[in-house]
Amino acid sequence: MTDNGARGGLLLGLGAYTLWGVLPLYFRLLASVPALEVLAQRVIWSLVLLVLVVSVMRRWRAIRTAVNARTVAMLVASAVLIGINWLIYIWAVNNGQTLAGSLGYFINPLVNVALGVAVLGERLRKWQGVAIAVAALGVIIMAVFALNTLWISLTLAASFGVYGLVRKVVAIDSLGGLLIETLLLAPPSIAYVLIAAANGTGAMGRSVSIDALLVVLGVVTALPLLMFAAAARRLPYSVLALLQYVAPTLQFIVAVAIFGEPLRPLHLFVFGLIWIGCAIFAWDSVRASRTARREARDRIAAASS
User: Quick one: DSSP state of residue 192?
Assistant: First the structure.
């Protein structure tokens, strides 16, 4: 990997996570639209954009080659999971629970590690275990004292964690997978929008500004995903592990500094535990990556001597 390639990957990764981090600001502009309709419009306009991208990139043949019954079955599951994740997050932002949403995405990397151990049989390094234990303590405390919002955080973390697991094992690239997921979600989304329009309750057509915001949802959804996919090909996993904390940190700042959501002592204590767990996890990821690179260099040197 060249320095320019790594630098480009870093910029793409930062761009993707920054866009995800400030996404609550965009959803808040659509607070007058029901969360289910925002989700439906998000799916429809994402599909339009993805069809254009795949056509421009001439990827249709490659995607068709990758599609089979097993792939479609797994993508049905991942489509349901990402649909649930998007819906809960949109609802949370527009109901004053962005803080709970950010907590979910702080927990998510640790959920990924736990799923890797439980489902894929991956070995847990000592400090990864410590990180998960510290974060789990924060979740338990939240469960005891703030059960009314914990479901948001856990649903977001679990749905996105299992979504990532499914996408990890399904035999299709990120662009093709996202296209098929949106194709699967499109029929119920289109049906919902048409029924809402027929009943006179649909948001589309009532305001030029709202119409524009709904249409641009396609770009807002697909662009960071495509940027992330490009970054993932250029960056080491340890760097991605660090970057993934950018989004929930920005969501946290938006929730408190812009939306004015109350930051209680319990939040500070729980988030403190989660942040400590994330910091341990990030440190261990960097340490393990450096060790692996050093061992690889040593093996190459030994083989050439």
Answer: H
The Cα 245–Cα 269 span in angstroms is: 18
The tokens for 102 are 């950010």
> What letter does residue 123 receive in the DSSP assignment?
P
Q: Is the pLDDT of residue 21 over 80?
A: yes
> Is the sign of the CA dihedral 75, 80, 81, 87 positive or negative?
positive
Q: What distances in angstroms separate CA 203 from CA 33, 43, 48, 81, 99, one per listed residue?
A: 6, 15, 19, 25, 27
What was the pLDDT predicted at 4?
A: 60
Structure confidence by residue, pLDDT tens digits, 64-84: 988 899 999 999 999 999 999
pTM of this structure = 0.83
Would you tell me how many other CB atoms lie within 10 Å of the CB of residue 68? 10
Residue with tokens 């049905």: 76
Q: Tell me, what amino acid is at 280?
A: I
How far apart are alpha carbons 218 and 265 in whole angstroms? 38
Assess contact for 56 and 108: CB atoms under 8 A: no
How do the residues of the chain divide into helix, strand and coil, expressed in percent and rounded to 5? 85, 0, 15
